[in-house]
Structure formats: C-alpha cells, structure tokens
Fold this sequence. Notes:
Elements: H1 3-15, H2 22-31, H3 35-48, H4 53-65, H5 69-82, H6 87-99, H7 103-116, H8 121-135, H9 213-219, H10 225-228, H11 231-238, H12 242-269, H13 276-280, H14 282-326, H15 329-345, H16 350-367, H17 370-382, H18 389-395, H19 400-413, H20 419-431, H21 435-446, H22 453-465, H23 469-482, H24 487-500, H25 504-516, H26 527-540, H27 544-557, H28 562-574, H29 578-591, H30 596-609, H31 612-618, H32 625-637, H33 641-649, H34 659-671, H35 675-686, H36 693-705, H37 709-722, H38 727-739, H39 743-756, H40 761-773, H41 777-790, H42 795-807, H43 811-824, H44 829-842, H45 845-859, H46 863-876
Helix pairs in contact: 1-2, 2-3, 2-4, 3-4, 4-5, 4-6, 6-7, 6-8, 6-12, 7-8, 12-14, 14-15, 14-16, 15-16, 16-17, 16-18, 18-19, 19-20, 20-21, 20-22, 21-22, 22-23, 22-24, 23-24, 24-25, 24-26, 25-26, 26-27, 26-28, 27-28, 28-29, 29-30, 30-31, 30-32, 31-32, 32-33, 32-34, 33-34, 34-35, 34-36, ...
Amino acid sequence: MAPSTVEKYERILQADPRSRIFVELARALLEAGGAERAVEVCQRGLEHHPDSVLARVLWGKALLALGRSDEAIARFGEALAADPANPYGCDLVGEALVKNGLAARALPLMEQAATLHPGDGRIRRWLEEARQASAGPAPLPDPPPASGGRGPELSIPTPTPSVSSASPWKASGGRGPEPSIPTPTPGPPPLRADARPPPILRSNRVPEPEASAASRFLDSLPDVSAASRGAAARERDDRPRPSAGRDEEREASEVASTYEHELREKLLADPVPQQGFVRRHAAAATLVAIAVAIAAGAATFVAVRKHRRADEARAAVEDARKGLARDTSGSLREAARVLDGARRAAPANAAAAALAAEVSGVLAYDFGDAGARSAARELLATGGAGEGALAARWLVADREGERGAAAEALLDGAARGTPLARALAGELLVARHDLDGARPHLEAAARASPPLLRALATLGDLELARGDAAAALDRYALVLRAHPTHPRAAIGAAEARLRLGRDLPEALHTLEAVEADESSATPLSAALRMDLALSRLLAATGRVADAEQRLAQAASRQPAEAEISAVQADVFARAGDLDRALRAAEGAVRLAPGSAAHRELVARLQLRHGRYRELLAATEGAPTRTLRLYRGIARLALGEANAARGELEGTRRDGKMTPEAAAWMALAELAAGHRAQASRITAVLLAAPSPHPVALVARGRLDAAAGRLDSAERRFRDAVGRDPELVDAQCDLGRVLVQRGRAAEARDVLEKAVARNPYHLDARLELGRARLGTGDAAGAARELEAVVKERPKDLDAWLALSGARLAAGAAAEARSAAERALGLDPKSAAAALAAGRAALAQGAPRDARPLLERAVKLGGKTPPGREARHALAALKRR
C-alpha cells in the first residue's frame, strides 16, 4: 500500500477512534512493513469491535511478522472461536499458518475445519498443504553415476557427474517455494454439530517416520487431481467461494457504509451553535460532511475490492504455475483458464501475463492449439509477455529463420530466464547431442518451485542417450509417481525398460493408460516415440499383430520415416521372422543411408540370422565401433578365434574397450586356447558392480572347462536373468544341464532359446542332445540335421546325429553320419566308436570289429576308448 493510503486511514481513525476503518489501516500497515503499529491498531480497534474476525487474523499475521508465533496462534484461535460456523476465518488462518511455516500447528485446525465444511475447496487445499509441508522438503535424489556408450570402459571407467543434490524447493528465477495442488483426501470422523474449533491451535499427532527422499520430493510436485477431475468438478472447486469472497466484500462495504453512518449520526447529533455564521449555515455544513463521508467510504470500498482482486490474481498465478509445471494438456488448459480470469480481474498483473504467454506457447507447440498460438503472439507483440517472452517466442516461432534466431536467443538467455526457459534450453541441447551443456539447465528447472515435470523427463532422456537406462528409469519413475499418465515420462520409461528387458507388461499398461486419458494427450513432438515404443512393447508381450498394425498406421502417416522401418525390423525379429526383419532394416538404411544406427541394426540381425560371411562382406570398412564388435562376434561364430581377437582389438578407444567388447574378447581368448588371458579379462569385468552378461558367460565357460559345473550353472543362469535375449547364455546353460544329467530341464531352456533365434546353431545342437536325453530321438534327429546342413564340417553335430539316428532305429543312417564324422577327423576315437556301434546295430560284426579296435587304439583310457573296449569284449563273447 502507498503511504498516502495509510495516512488517509490514520486521519479517519484519529477523527473517530471507534470506526471500523481500523481493519483496513491494519492491513495497509502490515503490507507496508509496519507490523508493530498494526498490532497496536488491531488491539485498540478490538476494544470497540470485539466481534471482528478479520481484525484478529490481521493481528495474528502481524505477530507472525514480528516472530511472536505463540501470541499469533492465540489470536488465530480467538478469531475462529468468534465465528466457528464461518469457513472464511478457517481459510485465512490456514493460509497464514502454512505460508509462515507453521503447518504442524495448522494441521489439527484444518482437519476439524474440513469436517465442519466438507464442501469447501479452499479449506481442503490448506489441509493438504499442511499435511505435505509437515513432511518437510528433501533434495533431489542423485541417480547412479552414468557412463557414456555401453557402460564403463575396461581399464579406467569415467563416471558421469551425478545430479546436484540441491533441494528441489530452492527457488528459481527469484520465486519462493510454492505449495502443491492438493488431492482431496478423506478427513477425520465427523464432529458433533455442537463441536467448536479449539481457541488455541495445538497438535497432538505422533510424528510419522521420515519419508524417503523421493517421496518427500514428490510432495513438492503439483497434484494430479486438477487434470483428472471433470470440468464441472474443477469449476466447482476453483470458483471463488461465496462465503470467502462475499464476506470480504461485505466487510469492505460495511467498513464504508458504517463509517458513513457513524459520521452522519455524529454530525447530526452535535449541538448546533445558536449564534454566528455556523448557525446560519449549519444545514449546508452537515450536507458537506455527509458527502465527504460518502466519498471516503466509497474510496475505502474500492481499495478493499482492489486488494481482494489482487490477492485472487496472485493465487491464480500460483495455481497456473503448478499447471505449467505438471506439463499435461489438461493441466495446461486449466492453467490457461485460470490465468484468463486472473488477467480480467487484475489487468496490470505482470506475472499473470508472463505466465499466460508461456502456457499459451506450450499449448501451441506441444498440442497445435491455434487459439493459444494467437494469444501468445498477441502478448509478445504488445510487450505483455514480460519474462515469459524468451520461452514463448521460441515456442510459437513458425518460419525456419525465425525459429533459428529464437532458439539461439533462448540458449543465450536461458540461464537468466524462467524455469520453462531453462527446461526448453535443455531440450534443445539434448536434441543437439550436447548432453553436458543440457544438464545444468534441466537440473535448474527440476529444482524450481514447483519442479517442472518436463525437465525431469528430459533428464531421463539425457541418461538414456548416455546409455544408462537404469538411471533414466529412476528419473521417469519420479515423474510417474507424481502423475502416472505423464506422456513424456511414460514413453521414456517404456524405452528404458525395453533396453533393460524388464517389467515390459507394466510399461505397456502405462502407455495404454496414457492413451486412454484425454487430459494426458501425447505432445506432437513425442507422437512418433509413442507409436514406436508402444509397438515394440506389444510385440515383446506377444501381441505381434497389434504391433504390426500400429506400425503400418504410423508408416502411412510418415512413409519416409526410417525409424518406423527400424522398429518394424525389431518387431519382426522378436516374432522370430528374421527374413522380414532384415528386409525392414535394409529399408531403414535406404531411407536414411547416413545412419550408422540402422547399418548396425542390419549387422545385428545378420548375426542373429547366422549370415556371418554376409555381415563381414557388407561391413568391410567397419567405420563404427559397434560394427567392429559385430564383426568380432561373427568371426568367433565361424571358429576364427584369432581373427575375432583382431576385430575386437579394433573397438579400443584411447586404449579402452567397452565391457561388452572386453567380454567377447575373453570368449575369443578362451576359444584360442589362452585360458589364463581369458581369466584375467573376466576377473576385471566381474569386479564391476553390474557385470556385463557376456562376462558371466565367459566365467561360466572357464568354470565348465575346469569341471566346476555347479558354479558354471550359476553363472549362466545369472547371465540369462540379466539378458533374456542372450541366446549364448541359454545355450551354455542347456549344455551344462545335459552334462549334469538334467536333460528335461535343459530341453525347456533350449527350446526357448531356439524359439528366440532359430538360426543359433549351437543352441539347436544342444537342443538335439537334450531331446535325445529325454528319449525323443526323432525330434533330436530333426534338430541335428538342421545343424549339419548349415555346418557340414561340424564333427560334434555329426556324432550327435549318429547317436540320434541309432536311437531312432535307423542304423544305416547312423553309420553314415558316423563315417562322415570319421572322415572329418580320422583320429577321432568318438567317431570310430560311433561307426562301430552303428555297424553292430546293422548286424555287421565284421565291419564293426576293426572300427572298435581303432577306437580303442585312438581313445586309450578316455571314455570313448573304454566304451570301445567293452564293446569288443562283448563281441568276442558272441
């Protein structure tokens, strides 16, 4: 209030100490910083008007400003006791206590007030504010240290700086902490009709255990209820409460009319002088005095009304800021509605205009709202956008040149801008792959009060871009706990879970819930991500037809989008149709020939398809680290261990290898017979907090080679649990189970592996052995015939096929397979033994004898040699 207003009220009160104008004087003094004088005015005014609720509330506020909280509590209690049936006093007291950090003292009062006035939206709001504030603020939880690429490097990992631990309640851009939008919650049991609030506020609540950092952080986020309730419910809760608005206006009117009435009565009651000029002009003087009183009363009424509207506008700006922070179509439209009303009530409110520019800009950019675009442009043109101009100008820029200039201006000024400006700057930098530059902006927006959910979601995108899906998921989870259908966070969480291969049904459920929620419409810029993530989840959970339909619709809308073809490839591969998957991936390369990611996708599918030589020919230049890795894996699958080691060495950068490449190097060393070197590499990899699954496979193979089958089994199971897509781990697990005599269990594991990748020949070889162990000789023969067809020089496969055919009663075919094996390795005792057994089954002991003798000579004391010796002894006894 201006000093002239205070002086005017002071003069009126001096003229009539019994006037009700003392209430407005106390309010004006309090706003001007004169708390001590306000206390004195309230105390003296209440001597004449002890029933004034507002005076006692103002007295309490003045005492709070002076730091005398206990006395303030007493005054608030008296205010409520003066008129317990009126919710207006409860509203004022609740606001005063919560905003001054006395939420615990306000809590019992607000609970009783909510019971007495269950339909009062403002009281419910202060009740929730008190409950949330009682838990206390907490800093943003630090995510696990992130690392670039595929994880920490083999030699010296370089951790990514973690998120600042500064509190999310720290103000950004000069704003103080803001309360969250509460969710209506059931109050305590109803009080009796004659119950009255206690005159002194006191809490007997037992302190609850301290909440976790994440849960307390969520308390500062705006609540989900405003967007999920229907429009009618929002209007019912948010329109001005009749008792509050009318009471304040009525009191203002009463101040004016009462003062006018008091002064008129006083003037009319004064004795009229009997002599002189005054006597002759007494009537005129009285009329002039009455006119002055009316004018003073009208001015008082206008001042109070203006003050009330300013308060309502400030409250509307706070609510709208929470809607902007929530960042959903429903919350943004509600924020726009609230701001429109606030600007009509208080046209000069610069904060409302600036926030309206930002809200309208986001609605235009994210949801294509033409009306919002026009509103934002008008505010920018008239200069009313204020501090919101930086973000709004970029959001509504249409032409390419205009958009580029607005983007550069946004990046230049974001550090001094609003939380939205910082969030948008972070998004721009993430899109430009400047992850280090984006992080400070996004963290600042995430620590704003209230925190911007879009900034938290983009921090998740940043972690995902760095290759740390677990840290990204932590970010997205925070947002989804605040708003379970937040589109950006739901999409990001789905992408993270797809990378991690876990909780996929939950991710699908969340995305379907987003699509079902009209108030959580997907932003235009995230629509393609939604289609792709949802399609991949549908395929991963067995709904391949639905995934294909969704992708076909997306392709019809954007036929030139290479990413759609890439996801089609992923969907087809998950369904086991690797031929269609390869065609789709090759289509993605044609649409985006410069994309290394799509060329890597083709190479990865060629690996799964067993097209190792085709992969090597197509990637001869090996321009990327990932393609070098795939070439090494292909060489290893072809049995070229030394060549594989050379390819994997090519993945080093600054002397370091990724954990995945190092793990495959361990397998290559093992295949080359360098067991000690393989063991050293594996030891380093397993020292990491979360070892790569291929490193566990390498350790398991080392254990199996040393005869430690129980340890090997544990390693392989751990690898499968970490990466269900790793067929090599499933294959090794099945092999160990067969060796341990658990053929039925091995068959179940290996059938899943072959269903996932029918071109993994080692898995089919082990499945053939497992089926043979369970008595399914015909099924075993089918699997093994597929293996020898693709690998005609595979000695183990021919031997296994000979045994399967012999068990199936096809002795001639069994002998033929054994002789093929013996031809591949004439010094193989196992091949000679298999051929001798098949000859005996044919009824040709003369042919069997030399084969068995050869097996005894080649095998010596090995198992094949011993078995051949027993067969010869039996043959002699005939």
